[in-house]
């Protein structure tokens, strides 16, 4: 297995919370920055959050800042995205990937299949 596997998506009401998980192979995960992106049909993949290898540095899109938290557990090759105060505009397929310290999807590789998040109003 090379591609990461995302999970934790689902249907939630506005204001609710979800926690996404992404498990990657050691080859993909180790020493790499990990990022979360999201995509809706007809639009380009959008940056959500990124965390560096140590977990001490993070960066967020302005649209999710203060509501989402990215973290990682290097012992489990897993990166998380805690999403609180969800809004209907957060509805998308969420993907994780390994890459460099960047907000551009072009700088990431080894994309997973994604997990669908639907936020109802």
Structure keywords:
121 residues; mainly beta; four-stranded antiparallel beta sheet
Order of helices and strands: EEEHEEEEEEEE
Poorly predicted parts:
none
Fraction of residues in helices?
under 10%
The gyration radius over C-alpha positions equals 13 Å
Helices, by number, come to: 1
Shape: globular
Average pLDDT over all residues: 95
Report on the biggest sheet: 7 strands, mixed
Find the count of extended strands (DSSP E, 2+ residues): 11
Helical/strand content category: mainly beta
Q: How far apart lie the N and C ends? A: 37 Å
Structure summarized in a few sentences:
The chain has one helix at 26-29, and strands spanning 5-7, 10-13, 18-23, 33-39, 46-51, 58-60, 68-73, 78-83, 92-99, 108-109, 115-120. With 121 residues, the chain is mainly beta. Strand 7 and strand 8 form a beta hairpin.
3D structure, described in words:
The protein has 121 residues and is mainly beta. The chain is built from 1 helix and 11 strands. The chain has one helix spanning 26-29, and strands at 5-7, 10-13, 18-23, 33-39, 46-51, 58-60, 68-73, 78-83, 92-99, 108-109, 115-120. Strands 2, 4, 5, 6, 9, 10 and 11 form a 7-stranded mixed β-sheet that branches. Strands 1-3-8-7 form a 4-stranded antiparallel β-sheet, with no helix packed on it. It starts with a strand and ends with a strand. The mean pLDDT is 95.
């Amino acid at each position: 297995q090379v591609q990461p596997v995302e999970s934790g998506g689902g249907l939630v009401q506005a204001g609710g919370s979800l926690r996404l998980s992404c498990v990657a192979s050691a080859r993909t995960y180790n020493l790499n920055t990990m990022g979360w992106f999201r995509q809706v049909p007809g639009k380009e993949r959008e940056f959500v959050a990124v965390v560096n290898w140590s977990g001490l540095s993070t960066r967020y899109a302005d649209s999710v800042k203060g509501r989402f938290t990215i973290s990682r557990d290097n012992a489990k090759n897993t990166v998380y995205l805690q999403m609180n105060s969800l809004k209907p505009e957060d509805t998308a397929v969420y993907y994780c990937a390994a890459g460099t310290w960047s907000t551009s999807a072009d700088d990431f590789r080894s994309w997973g299949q994604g997990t669908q998040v639907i936020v109802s109003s």
